[in-house]
Amino acid sequence: MQGRKTALTVVWLVLLAAVQVVAFVLLWRFAVRTEHGQLLDTIALTGNSIGRDRIDGLVGTVLNAMSVVSLLAATTVIGFIALIRRRMLLAIVATLLVAGANVTTQVLKYLIHRPDFGVDPERAAAGNSLPSGHTTIAASVALALVLVLPPKVRAWGAVIAVGYTALAGVATLSAGWHRPSDAIASLLIAGAWAAGAGILLVLTQGEQAQVERADAHRGIVTLLGLVGLGLLGVAAYALRSTDEVLMIPVDELNRPRLFDAYFGGAVGIAGTASLMMALVLTTVHRVVPRHNG
């Protein structure tokens, strides 16, 4: 019975990783390689000018807190938590998750070419910005932290981690550093690496691993899943509304239209972060059981 459950968990994690990789490819091809996708992103990014003065301080604080030094410090703390729990392999895998996601983001950002369709001439010289490095830092650290936290505090840690990840992703949009697709692409990369880390942890468990149903945190999983789907529904509605005005030059769009696109992009980032964490929590009690056997 235990072997069957392990096999099902591995199959689920493989499927989850594959779905996120496919979603990343589809997002990249639409948002970067088509004029339609670039227009939607540009309108959302232009809308960030509405009310920016009111949140500049918060946005600056969030983004300035994320650097190579802070990433190393956070990774060290994550590894330390796993070692306190006497989980050497967990410490290694959590570190690989953070490192792998961030290296992948930087490599892809360098390799991906953004064609110039004349959609956003002010930023054309900057080239490609997908995926977002800052969002990857936040998402990878959040996911690794949830893996290493003890079951008693994992659920609330996941809620806080989602808030932090969503705030970081939206901050890159609010600051004008990244488009909505850049942040969402980063979340998919981090999520795929989390699934890969889960596969490795499950396959290296002993036969006597003890999985507790109480550690499944079904209430938090359901809450985060419903919130994520709800926010993505709102984002889809805003996307459809923005799609209706694509033929109008961006500088001629009124404030409500620009705000709708910006709000939809921000909500889409937050919804993706929430749904990603819910999917990770569905198996984390099996990936990191109380007793590893």
| Beta-strand residue fraction | under 5%
Count of discrete domains: 1
Name the helix and strand elements from N-terminus to C-terminus, one letter apiece.
HHHHHHHHHH
- How many strand units? 0
Radius of gyration, CA atoms, in whole angstroms: 19 Å
Q: What is the tally of helical segments?
A: 10
Largest sheet: none
What sort of overall outline do the alpha carbons produce when their principal axes are compared?
Answer: elongated
Which spans of ≥5 residues are poorly predicted at pLDDT below 50? none
Helical fraction equals over 70%
The secondary-structure class comes to: mainly alpha
Q: Could you tell me how far the N terminus lies from the C terminus, measured between alpha carbons in angstroms?
A: 15 Å
If you average the pLDDT, what whole number results?
Answer: 91
Description:
The protein is mainly α and 293 residues long. The chain has one domain (2-287). Helices cover 75% and strands 0% of the residues. It is built from 10 helices and no strands. The chain has helices at residues 2-31, 35-46, 52-64, 68-84, 88-111, 133-148, 151-174, 180-203, 218-243, 255-287. The protein is elongated and about 65 Å long.
Quick overview:
The protein is mainly alpha-helical. The protein has helices at 2-31, 35-46, 52-64, 68-84, 88-111, 133-148, 151-174, 180-203, 218-243, 255-287.
Write the layout of secondary structure elements.
Elements: H1 2-31, H2 35-46, H3 52-64, H4 68-84, H5 88-111, H6 133-148, H7 151-174, H8 180-203, H9 218-243, H10 255-287
